[in-house]
Structure to design on (290 residues):
């Protein structure tokens, strides 16, 4: 085996990507020189080491299952169902890479060969596209897709949170009397004010039209939620200036809290929406369940 790898090493080192060869016990038997540029290890540092050294801890169990199945009957393929997976570099950081794997039979023994390529640029492009898809183009804050992803993650982790559902009052006249350009500027002003009220772990989104939602991470106390709703109503209702135009809008707000008011996205939004409607009917700024 060593003689065979020695004969192959010059060829494998000439290839532009990082390459590792792994035996049936998951030990690295060969790494070419490009592994250092990708993950920071010299080939000698990896020889006889477990492949787990290059795999983030939360991916290792799935990787072992996948690799075992592949070694038995797999065909050469790109690894994973996404264009980017993650390797673990020498400093312990996760590095975006693409991986292709194949079985390699040498001297009567089966090995697996992995070809790894730096996918930082691809990951950056994916991040940019994802961010754009989750952003309201008019206001620059999040949209319904970003809210859905945030709620899905929090619910899956049983992490408590509250929602504030906002519907603007006296907004339509700005569109009707001054045109949609002014109406758009009003929505942008409201979005900036909402964004200024949330923490980094919170989220402000525009659902569409003149409806907004605030996701408030970890907040479940009704009294504190009322205080937040009052602060939001006060901020949104402050007068603004657009050129020579001076004006203000009002707002009605409804609250909902997970898990008290629902255990899924749609139920929680419905409760917050219903409470917002009750506030509108009662002529008050906000309605929060006790």
């Amino acid at each position: 085996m060593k003689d065979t790898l020695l004969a192959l090493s010059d060829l494998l080192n000439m290839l532009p990507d990082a390459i590792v060869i792994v035996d049936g016990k998951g030990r690295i038997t060969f790494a070419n020189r490009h592994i250092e540029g990708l993950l920071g290890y010299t080939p000698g540092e990896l020889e006889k080491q477990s492949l787990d050294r290059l795999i983030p801890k939360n991916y290792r169990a799935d990787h072992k299952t996948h690799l075992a199945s592949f070694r038995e009957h797999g065909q050469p393929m790109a690894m994973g169902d996404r264009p980017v997976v993650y390797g673990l570099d020498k400093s312990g950081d996760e590095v975006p890479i693409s991986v292709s794997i194949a079985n390699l039979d040498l001297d009567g023994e089966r090995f697996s060969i992995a070809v790894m390529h730096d996918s930082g640029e691809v990951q950056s492009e994916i991040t940019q596209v994802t961010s754009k898809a989750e952003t309201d183009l008019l206001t620059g804050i999040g949209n319904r897709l970003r809210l859905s992803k945030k709620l899905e993650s929090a619910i899956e982790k049983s992490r408590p949170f509250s929602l504030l559902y906002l519907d603007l009052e006296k907004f339509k006249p700005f569109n009707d009397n001054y045109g949609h350009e002014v109406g758009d500027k009003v929505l942008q002003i409201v979005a900036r004010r909402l964004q200024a009220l949330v923490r980094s772990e919170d989220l402000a989104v525009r659902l569409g039209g003149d409806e907004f939602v605030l996701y408030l991470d970890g907040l479940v106390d009704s009294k504190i939620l009322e205080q937040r709703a009052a602060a939001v109503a006060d901020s949104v209702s402050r007068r603004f200036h657009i050129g020579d135009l001076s004006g203000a809008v009002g707002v009605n707000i409804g609250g909902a809290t997970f898990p008290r008011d629902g255990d899924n996205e749609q139920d929680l939004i419905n409760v917050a929406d219903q409470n917002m409607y009750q506030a509108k009917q009662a002529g008050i700024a906000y309605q929060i369940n006790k």
Notes: The chain has a mean pLDDT of 89. Residues 5 and 155 are 50 Å apart (CA to CA).
